[in-house]
Design a protein that fits this description.
Elements: E1 7-8, E2 16-25, E3 35-45, E4 50-54, H1 63-74, E5 82-87, H2 92-97, H3 121-133, E6 139-142, E7 150-152, E8 155-159, H4 164-177, E9 181-185, H5 194-200, E10 204-209, H6 218-234, E11 248-251, E12 258-260, E13 265-269, E14 276-277, E15 282-287, E16 297-300, E17 305-311, E18 315-316, E19 321-329
Parallel strand pairs: 4-5, 4-6, 6-10, 8-9, 9-11
Antiparallel strand pairs: 1-2, 2-3, 3-5, 7-17, 8-10, 11-19, 12-19, 13-15, 13-18, 14-17, 15-16, 17-19
The structure holds zinc ion (ZN).
Length: 332
Amino acid sequence: MRETSMTTSVDLDAEGVQHGHLILPHSRDDSAWGSLQIPITVLRNGKGPTALLTGGNHGDEYEGPLALVDLAATLAPEQITGCVIIIPFMNLPAFRAGSRTSPFDGGNMNRIFPGRSDGTPSEKIADYFQRYLLPRADVVLDFHSGGRSLDFLPFAACHILDDAAQFARCRAARDAFNAPFSLEMREIDAVGMYDDAAEALGKTFVTTELGGGASTTPETVSIARKGMRNLLIHEGILDGTPERAPSRSLIQPGDDCFHFASDGGMIEYMATLGSELRRGDVIARIWETGHTGRAPQEISAKMSGLLIARHFPGLVQQGDCVAVMAVEVFET
Ligand SMILES: [Zn+2]
């Protein structure tokens, strides 16, 4: 593997606080010798664990970036023990375009890990995270929300991992985040995910889905801020008392959690996020737009449980994921 062409204007090992950039040369039509400059803040105070905090993995999700720019502007090194690395706009070109993927190369940052040092701009960013940032981290928090096309109940999530000790660490970190919902998450397509890359390196990894529709609410942003702070306290990096509230625990027992449109059209939801559904209940109806006088396609729940995600725009295409479900578990 070639050396990366990315450089950084900050010293990742220096004490104190630094605000700088990850710099990726990017020659293009409107900037022949230009570069991408991805903002990064690094705080270090003595020996202790390292937290790597990221948002903007997808460019149309805002709770994480809002919480992270605030943290970068306000956190002082004397408040921490160890190191906090803050990167609010991981896929900066996508973020600036307000799109999930990069306008330069179509790169979906969460499907291209471990990246390539000689690849597209998105692949080069992924490669830098894979080889230079993830190995430094003890705990990795990657914020997501539904973006333009999905809307979620606000949850923090971990994945089920083969390594029982690592799974317990990830689960405890997810619980420390203390979102209104805490999920053991099943992925439709885990290949190339940042999550997978972090977990494969043995890191404590937490992700979120905090809302959607490519916007935020005061509530979802405050969940991001509170959860991030709670997690840093849990990891022994930040001083303070965690802010706790009830969190409902969810699991995803199988692929029946996911519901897809078999034809496109105009979608009418019959259930709201958080609704408790029985198997067979109609979640949504999809009306054809090429004809009148025809019955709509019904999307029925393939299992009993809670509706945790839905498609956001009013029009759907064939194959769109229109509903995601999970089962609440009550721990004794
Ligand atoms: Zn995302």
